[in-house]
Amino acid sequence: MNGNHSQLQFSFEDYIAENIDIVNGRLIFDADSDSGIETSFGKGKKLQPFKKKVPGTDMTSLSLYQARGSTQILKALKSANFKTDQDVKQFLNRSAVYGSRILRAKDVDIIVSPKSSSDLVKEFAKEIERRTYYDFYIDAFQKTVDISKVEIDRDDPRITDDIIASMEKILTRSKRKGFLSVKQFAPSHRKFIKNLFEIIDESLYRKVVDKNVAIIDDVMTTGTTAKQIHDILKAHGANEVTTLTLFKATS
Predict the structure, then answer these.
(1) Segment 118-139 mean pLDDT
(2) Second label for 78, Cα 20 to 30 Å away, from 13, 88, 92, 156?
């Protein structure tokens, strides 16, 4: 990285070059400067998004961008003023054009998104909603309020006694303090968490029966959030579940 100025380059169409800079923590779209953080847009290989199999599910996550330094980009996006920042609005607009194309190919019926402390996912979903005719349920899922409901998936054949013991310590401590974050668990252990998310509007249960559902989120890392929501949707009769994210994190 070059201090607080770093560039990310990607191609949206074969004939349109796009650049992103992060300058003093702010995202600058269509900038023209030297590279710092490298990223690539999902249309780079045969117009396909970046894919990741979500552990413990039959679901594949589709991401528009892959970037080293995606944390820095997301920080800039999440702190932006979505009403006035024209660079961010342009970024989300272009991302939604491609995201909508991906969803049409998946024959989606319903789109849902998890509730977040940032409006980034909501704004991205709104941009897609403007371009499609799906049923949208934005902020449809939230982290479980009652920590006592969160459990360890002891039936998973991949789990070991050592992992269970480690996770039990974290859960016990979290329940005593009244606060639980998925980041408290080792990334390789997060797939064994159950009931971390819950649905906000229970009327959605009957609407997802036999439907193809897409989950929209900001970044795909370990897939914990996607798996939790996938399991809830599948348990209530959803047909196929897909995840669409802005970024696929890389190491």
Answers:
(1) 93
(2) 13
Looking at the fold, whether 224 and 114 belong to one and the same domain comes out as: yes
| CATH code: domain of residue 116 | 3.40.50.2020
C-beta separation of 73 from 41 below 8 A = no
pLDDT class for 216, splitting at 50, 70, 90?
Answer: very high
Q: What is the pTM of this model?
A: 0.84
Residues 139 and 155 grouped into a single domain: no
For residue range 3-54, what is the model confidence (pLDDT) as tens digits?
443 444 443 443 345 567 778 888 887 645 444 444 555 544 566 788 999 9
**R_g of the chain computed on alpha carbons:** 19
Q: How many domains, in total, are found in the chain?
A: 2
Nearest alpha-carbon partner for 218 in 100, 124, 86, 134: 124
Q: Annotate 189-201 with b (16+ C-beta within 10 A) or e (fewer).
A: bbbbbbbbbbbee
Helix 86-105 to helix 120-129 angle (10° resolution) is 60
Quick: pLDDT tens for 75-95: 889 999 999 999 899 889 888
Q: 245 and 220 in contact (C-beta within 8 Å)?
A: yes
Asked if residues 216 and 125 have their Cβ atoms less than 8 Å apart, the reply is yes
* 179 in the same domain as 91: no
Residue 214 and residue 160 share a domain: no
DSSP letter (8 states) at residue 142:
E
Q: Which domain holds residue 85?
A: 5-144+196-249
